[in-house]
UniProtKB/TrEMBL annotation:
One of its GO terms (biological process) is tRNA threonylcarbamoyladenosine modification. Keywords: Nucleus, tRNA processing. The keyword Ion transport does not apply. This is EKC/KEOPS complex subunit Tprkb. It comes from the Eukaryota. GO terms for cellular component: cytosol; EKC/KEOPS complex; nucleus. SUPFAM superfamilies: PF0523-like. Its main location: nucleus. The keyword tRNA processing applies.
Length: 190
């Protein structure tokens, strides 16, 4: 009988992948991991478009908090469960749901990865056996880091501009609250 022992690097990687059950959809989970010093973004995009990666890969500069991702993923799972996806699959729906825009193309450009990105976030839905994230690990040329480092890579000025958040609003609300509100009500605000 062979006993598999995880190496320290395997355990560290597992510690950096966070999985969250969905309260409203108990049959679903969201797994999230962040990578820095990512290279070969064009190659990564080719793998995403080619369907080799079953995950949403998001620019970390547009994310101010992990909760922002969880809200968007929850909306995407709801759209899939109710048969109301606006995009081709659950992964592009997660990216679309992050955006305040109802334009799919605009959402994918602003929240998906671009050659300027050096840090990205991978989001998998219903990755019960961890295989989807393992494929992500094989295709991302970068270092996995704890999600607690996310704030280091957020471009708050760009986030405020894209979500149209001004300083007056931030006197009464946090950046995260303003962003999440726009994600939650985007269908009704337009």
């Amino acid at each position: 009988m062979t006993i598999y022992r995880q190496s320290k690097s395997d355990m560290a990687q597992e510690d950096h992948i966070k999985t969250f059950p969905m309260d409203v959809f108990p049959h679903s989970t969201i797994s999230v991991a962040m990578f820095k010093d990512v290279r070969k973004i064009d190659e990564l995009k080719t793998h995403i478009v080619g369907g080799e990666i079953d995950a949403a890969i998001v620019s970390s500069r547009m994310i101010c908090d992990l909760f922002q991702i969880l809200v968007a993923a929850n909306k995407a799972v709801n759209a899939k469960t109710t048969g109301k996806l606006k995009t081709r699959n659950i992964n592009s729906e997660v990216v679309f749901c992050l955006s305040p825009s109802n334009s799919i193309t605009d959402s994918l450009k602003k929240f998906g990865v671009s050659p300027e990105d050096s840090a990205v976030i991978a989001v998998t839905v219903d990755d019960f056996d961890g295989q989807k994230m393992q494929v992500v690990l094989q295709h991302i040329n970068g270092e996995m880091v704890p999600l607690e480092q996310l704030h280091r890579y957020t471009d708050e000025d760009t986030v405020k501009k894209v979500y149209k958040i001004n300083d007056v609003e931030l006197q009464k609300s946090s950046l995260l609250d303003s962003v999440v509100t726009r994600i939650a009500v985007k269908e009704f605000a337009m």
